[in-house]
Design goal:
It is built from nine helices and eight strands. The chain is an alpha/beta fold. The protein has a single domain, classed as Rossmann fold (3-Layer(aba) Sandwich). The longest helix is centred in the first third of the chain and has 17 residues. Bound molecules: zinc ion (ZN). The site of zinc ion has 6 residues, from loops.
Length: 272
């Protein structure tokens, strides 16, 4: 299709936006609908692996890593690129086990930015798969790469014109702060698979620390769920409101957090 200036003017937006809309319209929807998880580092899967595993039969699950975790093993491993290579191989094995499609945005661990290049790369993926739902890190996170992911997703969605359901997951509790869960997903039935997925991140699991902390956190979140379960993963939405009939609510394992309704979700539109 050729895009004339008249067509572009008709949209009253940039040629890039016209292209984005055209690609979205042209994308073939066949088979399962897609969902997408964007995380900063390969092992950030610990924020959502159980839920992704629960959803993988129903949806075409895509995982996008902003970086390859190049700084995860010290300066020498970053300088000779061995860490990035090793963690890429670990992530490929982990996502193969989970049955997802893996993408890398090739930012550098510790210096990631939601700049034009990664925004464009993510936008291309979004337009290709037209996800029903997207998940990423909660914006308040003291790891700069995690925080960048939410800005990156917001910008890529805005440029794409797509409006999928938007969810946020929790990373380490000492990093993700002030996230009030809207949903708790019971991952007890698939927890052994979550641990298996995380076990592929060998270089980040010294003394089994990654798996032990993940188990502790999942137990803690499981106790908060109503009714309580052995293991849970928390998620929230952009404004704390549950998304009726959404991807997470398609799981019988999902419970709406009892505190969700108490979050002040007033916007200017609600004011008298
Ligand atoms: Zn991380």
């Amino acid at each position: 299709m050729k895009y004339t200036s008249a067509m572009i003017n008709a949209f009253r937006v940039s040629p890039l936006r016209v292209l984005a809309v055209a690609m979205a319209m042209a994308a073939c929807v066949h088979g399962k609908e897609a969902i997408l998880f964007l995380s900063a580092h390969p092992d950030d899967t610990d924020g959502f692996a159980g839920t992704a595993y629960l959803l993988k039969d129903k949806y075409d699950v895509h995982v996008v890593d902003l970086t390859r975790g190049e700084r995860g093993l010290g300066q020498a491993g970053q300088d000779d690129a061995s860490t990035g290579y090793r963690r890429t191989q670990e992530e490929i094995r982990a996502q193969a086990y989970c049955g997802t499609t893996l993408h890398f945005l090739k930012e550098v661990d510790g210096s990631a930015a939601a700049g034009d290049r990664p925004v464009y790369e993510l936008m291309k993926i979004l337009l290709e798969i037209k996800p029903k739902a997207v998940f990423t890190h909660w914006p308040i996170d003291n790891h700069v790469d995690h925080a960048q992911c939410s800005a990156l997703m917001a910008n890529a969605l805005r440029k794409s014109g797509l409006k999928p359901e938007r969810y946020f997951f929790e990373e380490w509790m000492r990093q993700t702060r002030n996230m009030v869960p809207t949903y708790y997903v019971d991952i007890s039935g698939v927890f052994k698979h979550k641990l298996k997925i995380l076990s592929f991140y060998e270089c980040q699991n010294k003394n089994n620390y990654l798996l032990r902390m993940t188990e502790k956190r999942a137990r803690w979140r499981g106790k908060q769920r109503v009714p309580a379960v052995e293991f849970a993963e928390p998620f929230t939405t952009w404004d704390g409101r549950p998304i009726k009939g959404g991807v997470l609510e398609s799981l019988v394992e999902t419970a709406v957090a009892p505190g969700a309704a108490s979050v002040d979700i007033t916007t200017e539109a609600d004011l008298p």
